[in-house]
Structures are given as structure tokens and as C-alpha cells.
Amino acid sequence: MVATETIATDRPAISIALAGNPNAGKSTLFNTLTGSRQHVGNWPGKTVERKTGELVHNGRRVVITDLPGAYSLSAYTQEESITRDFLLAERPDVVVAVVDAANLERNLYFVVQLLEFETPAVIVLNMMDVASRRGLTFDLGKLSQALGSPVVPTIARNEDGLDEVMSAAVGAASLSSQLFALDYGPEIEGEIDRLLPEIERHPAVTDQYPARWLAVRLLEDEPDIASRLSRLPGGAGLVDLAEKSRMQLSQALGEDVDLVIADRRYTWIHQLVARVLRTEREESISFSDRIDHIITSRWLGIPIFMIAMWVVFKITTDVSAPWVDWIDGVLSGPISRWTLVLLSAAGLGESWIASLLVDGVIAGVGGVLAFVPVLLSLYFALAVLEDSGYMARGAFVMDRLMNRIGLHGRSFLPLMVGFGCSVPAIYATRTLTNQRDRILTGLLVPFMSCGARLPVYVLFTAIFFPAQASLIIMGLYLLGILVAILVGLVLQRTLLPATAAPGLVMELPPYRLPNARSIRYQMWLRTRAFLQHAASLILLASLAIWLLMAVPMGGQGKFADTPVENSVFARISGMTALALRPLGFGTWQSGGALISGLVAKEVVISTLGQTFGAEIELAEGVGGSFLADLGEIATSFVAAVGDTLRALPGIVGINLGGEKGAAAPGLAMAIRNSFDTSSGGHANAAGLAFMVFVLLYTPCMATIAAEKHELGTRWALSSFFGQLIIAWLAAFAVFRIAAWLGG
Ligand code: GDP
Ligand code: MG
Fold first, then answer.
1. Which-ligand-closest: CA of 68?
2. Which listed residue, 131, 307, 489, 672, has the most CB atoms within 10 A of its CB?
3. Ligand 1 neighbours (beta carbon < 6 A)
4. C-alpha 550 – ligand 1 centre gap (Å)
5. Running DSSP on this structure, what letter comes out for residue 175?
6. Is 7 among the domain residues?
7. Which atom of ligand 1 approaches the CA of 387 most closely?
């Protein structure tokens, strides 16, 4: 359909910004309008998602930006300042303000501030289905007249009214900017009138800011507006003038000016809504109120929440596990075999190229792809929780508890997911609404002992504490939580003090049936973002380890065919052994295992096996035919489907499955002897310290990549080095104390 339209390329594209409260339906509108012609990135220097998309409407090219959801435009939160700065700097041709019709009054608070930007606007009254089910009717004409902009009713989820939105927006783009002036009362209007001519004398200022908008902002004393203005020619004088006006005003009004301004806005909106909104029937206690009564009740709230979290946890771990195995099996089986066959045909079967491709590249790609099923299932679970409206209830229930350790109720979910895998857990911090909470939660996630660390505990308790294995493993999990609480408390008192969100009450969005289309979008776009951002780092790290193992030390072997103990890897590991000596496991084998654990924690054991020269079964290529291989891919796929289905009852907590991972006896002996020597006879203490170190030290590269993407480079580096230090100190203490107790 698009292809047959003639696109007027001679006219510039119209730029449209979608803005509004969270959950008003912006993204639904955006996705439906732009389909797959989307680009997802981050706002420059921010960790908030930036989505732009394109479409053609009546032959005009239109570029749409989905702005982050915000409750006001006072720039107290990152979302608010992104929205504000976008409107100021990029000057879109039209702002489409998406409003939840069922919550008109609250949504208008944001709209009114948006209109003050003097950009042509279209008001989209979305969720008309919900509104009419509640018996609400609107006088659209009056509303449009009062706001000075067209108002279009829609049901975005059913794609109802979207064409009208585009027509109104394209129409509005050709209008000159509209002045929307809310009457703030004689005292404030008097000061605005005094400031306006002063502002208008400075073209450098009016170039960047709408004059009346700036006057109001200055009287409100909005954060960072004064400092930005001072940098413009003539700006400092204006800041002084406004300062005087504000002083006089607060004297005359007997209250802070920003409070009076906010109050006037609320009053104006309240009166407007009273004129345009009719409620047909008396609203009885609604169905959703009754459900809320149970779900957020004192006794059932937390158990229900725990069950919901358990389900999310099971979905991200158990349901994805067969698929991770399948990807792993296909890559290390058929794909590796085919590569070798092709290389042999080219006479390169035994060369370093074969080793690079199979042990380096294919293994590295496997490390990246293994996260795809995990992330897809996490995003599925998150989208369902968020879209159904349960997430807000769960957060509400947990809030009091989590507040004690300075976190938001919503932080519980990422931390919980962290017991499965830190990578999706870091991405799950997106569900938190402010940056500081995201960072703090993200930094604490790696202390939740992830699934990949469990095999290390299983092996080491089997070697050192066969009688108390489960007790010790549980103790490690608890230690992780304890350290997280301590680190959280320290960070709150130092780098990440709690920010009081001014007057923001948590409100519960209505229950909705999750929308398949929106879930699909969220699952795919976010997983794709992970692949784009993390793939290169994980791949590079695996290649680096491969290279270090391939290069022989001092000419004692052939490239890519070196025994590990003669490789550069062994030499570097030997250097780390020095730092590990006070912890009781200062050997190059331990050092090497921990270094390769930086790529992925599950590699720790296989590296130990390799470096101790123990026989760990290496999947022997059965050397089947091409067709047999295809058959194997298919049957293992079917098996994965079967396993997924079988995992489903497990979600409700029915079976936990057995732990595998009994060690080869040779390896156990070798590790025990090595630890005994390196610790001066305190092998058990050293074994315990090693587990504590594995629990706490630097998370794997995929997690670091996720942290870099979500929290920024600085915090990713803090996590890298901070955890290394914490792990060293904790392992040191554990080793000393345990050795002293006679371990
Ligand atoms: P955003 O936060 O503004 O981007 O809101 P979303 O687009 O993510 O929408 C929030 C939820 O509202 C999603 O579950 C949508 O499926 C749902 N939704 C969007 N538009 C409508 C609508 O017109 N009617 C109803 N009933 N639900 C809608
Ligand atoms: Mg959205």
C-alpha cells in the first residue's frame, strides 16, 4: 500500500512527537502507526529508550518520536527533562498529546504544561472504550476550544481513530504556533507581564525558549532553567529580574510561587473537566476495585506477589533452559562439525583457523545466542505483568518492605530475576521509573547468586563439605543477599541518596488484557537491543581467552595446539595467583578459572578441568551425515518443545528437578590437593573462600555489557572493580576465620 503511494519528496518530512503520561497508550499508537519502520536507541547520554519511526500519510513523509512517559514537565525526573529538552531543542512540527480518557483530569495536568510550549498540538483522547464502559461522555467541542487544539478520540489498541489522528497532526503542522495561556491570577499575571517585554528584548533567549513559557518557568524556579539561561547573552539579567519578581510574589501570596502556580493549574483543569465530562451512571464499586481489595490486602498481598515473582522466575529459567541447551547443542554439534568438514575439504582441518572458528567464534556466538531465549521469556513475563496492570499492584504491596532498604517496591522483581541470571535482571530494572532506583537496583543484582554459579558450589561442596553441602550452598545465597543489603545501605548514604519524588503518589492503572501485539514488540525490540549492544563485548572476551590459550609461552609449542599449562593464559593466571595467595587458593589454575569466569561463570569448572588436566567429557562428534545432522537439530528442537511444556507445571512449583554435576573423581582429587598445598593445610577454608569469591567477584561480561547499556559506563566499571575488591576482602576474611577455626 505504501509502495503505490506517491511520496512528495520535495517537501520535508513532518516531525511529530508523542507525549503523555505513562500507560496512556503512546507506544501502542506509535507501534501501530509505524509498524516495523522503527529505530530504537537511547537518548544521548541517558539510559532511557528512544524510539523513532516513519510513515507516509497522504503522500507526506512523517517522522514520529515516542517520548518517555511523564506526569509533569517540571524536569524533576529524567523522563520529564528528556521530554522538555526534546521540545525545546528539536522543535517538532506537532506534539501529539496522548491522554487516557478514563483519567482525564490527571492527564490534563501534563497536557496543559505541554501546550505552554506553543508548539502546534493535537490532543488524542485514547482508551475511549474504557471510558465509555465507565459511562463517561465528553463534550469534545468544548474541550478542544478550551485547549485551543483539535481533540481526536481513539481506541489505539483496536486501531480505532488513528487515521484521524494523522490527519489532524498533519493539518496542525501547517498551522502557526498557537498561544495557549492559562490564567494564573492577577498577581502572577502581573509579574509575567513585567517579565515578558524584558525577555523579548533578547533574541538569543527567544530563539531558544517560548517567552511566556520561560516567564512562568522562572517564576516557578524550575531546576536548571536559571543556570542555562545565565549562559545566554542577557540571560543573567533576566534571572535576577525573575528572582525579584518571585520574592515579591511569594510575599504577596504568602506561599511559594510554584505551589500557587501548580494549584492554579489544578483548579483550572478541575473546572474544565466539570464542564466537558459527564458521568452517565453512578459508579458503583467497580470490579477492579474489588480485585484490588484482595490483591493488595494485608494478608494476601505478599503471598500473591511471591507467587507472581516465582512464576516470572520459573519462566525466565526453566522455560528458556531447553532452548538454551538446544542452541548450544546445535552450535557445538552440527554447526561445529560442518565447519570442520568444510575446513578439512579446504585442507585446513587441523589448522589454527579451525580452532579459531570452532573454539573461538562459534563458542562465542553460542555465548551470545544463549541469552536470546532467556531474554525473550523475561520480556514476555514482564510485558504480561506490566500490561495487565499487576506490576503496579505488586510494587505497591512490596513498597513498604523494600523502602526499609531504600529501594522501591518494583526493585524486588529484578533482584528476584537475578537468582536466575543477572543479564535479564539488569534489563528488568527498566520497569523502575527513576534513574537512581535503576542504578542502585542494577548494582545490587549481581550479588543475587545466579544460576551459573551454582555448579561451582555443587562441585566445591562435594569436594570439601560433602556432609553439609546444602547448608553451605544456602549460606552462600544468603551471604549474597546480606552483602547486597550492606552495599545498598552504603551507596544510599554516599553516592546514591534517595531522591524524594515531589508529591508523586503511586496510582494503580486499570486492569487490562495484555495485548499480544505490544508484547511481541517489546520482546523482540528489546532482545534485539541486547544483541546489538552486548554481542560484540561477549564475542571479544571469548576470542581474547581463546587467543591467550592458543599462544604458547616461550616457543614451547605450536600456535593453537599448546597444552594449557604452556600458554600465555597460564602465565597471566600465574600472575593473578600472587593476589589470590592470601585467600588460600593462590595457584595459576584457580586464577585461570576465575579469569575465564569473567566471560561466563559456567566456564569456571570447565577451565578447572582443563588446567588440572582432568578428563571432562568433551562432546565427541559422532560424525553423522548431513541429513542425520539435520535430523538431530529437528529432534532436539522437538525435545526442547517437550521440555518447555514439561517445565510449565514446574512453574507452579511442582518439581524442582535433580541437580546434575557430579565431578570426575580425578578432578576432585586434583583440586583438593592443590588447595591443600596453596593454603598451607587449610584446604576446607580455602575451598570455602573460593566459593565466596565466585559468589561476589566481578560479574560476567554479558552482565557488564548489560550494565554499560542500562546504567552507563561509569557504573559498569564501578561494578567491575568494586565487586572484585568486595570479593577479595570477603574471601580473605572467610579464609582467615575458617582457618583459625581449624578448617
Ligand atoms: P504508554 O506507556 O503510553 O506507551 O502506553 P502503552 O502504549 O504501553 O499502553 C499501555 C497499555 O494500554 C497497553 O497494555 C495497551 O495495550 C493498552 N491500551 C492502549 N490503548 C488502549 C485503548 O485504546 N484501549 C484499551 N482498553 N487499552 C489500550
Ligand atoms: Mg511507552
1. 2
2. 131
3. 20, 22-28, 69, 126-127, 129-130, 155-157, 387, 512, 515, 518
4. 53
5. S
6. no
7. 14
For residues 695 and 731, state if they share a domain.
yes
Beta-carbon neighbours within 5 Å of ion ligand 2: 26-27
Which residue is it, cell 575465564? 596
pLDDT tens-digit readout, 362-395: 877 877 787 788 888 878 888 888 778 887 788 7
pTM above 0.85, yes or no: no
Ligand 1 atom with the shortest distance to the CA of 127: 23
User: How many domains would you assign to the chain?
Assistant: 4
Which protein residue's CA is at the shortest distance from atom 28 of ligand 1? 157
Assign residue 255 a region (left: φ > 0; alpha: ψ between -120 and 50; beta: otherwise): beta
- Domain co-membership, 360 together with 486: yes
Q: Are residues 239 and 155 in the same domain?
A: no
- Using CA positions, which residue lies closest to atom 19 of ligand 1? 25
Report the CATH number that the domain containing residue 236 is assigned in CATH: 1.10.287.1770
Residues 30 and 131 in one domain: yes
Ligand nearest to the CA of 26: 1
Q: Report which protein residue has its CA nearest ligand 1's atom 17.
A: 25
Last residue of a domain, one of 279, 294, 321: 279
Confidence tier at 557 by pLDDT (50, 70, 90): low
Closest CA to 450 of 624, 558, 604, 571: 604
Ligand number nearest to the C-alpha of 23: 1
Within 13 A of 525's CA, how many CA atoms are on the CB side? 22
Domain housing 718: 535-648+655-740
Do 512 and 659 have their domain in common? Answer: no
- The answer on 574 and 709 residing in a single domain is yes
Give the CA angle between residues 519, 525, 531 to the nearest 5°: 135
**What pLDDT is attached to residue 627?**
67
CATH code: domain of residue 29 = 3.40.50.300
Mark out the alpha helices in 597-625 (DSSP H runs). 603-611
The residue out of 140, 173, 206 marking a domain boundary is: 173
Q: What is the DSSP string of 10-64?
A: TSPPEEEEEEESTTSSHHHHHHHHHTT-EEEEE-TTS-SEEEEEEEEETTEEEEE
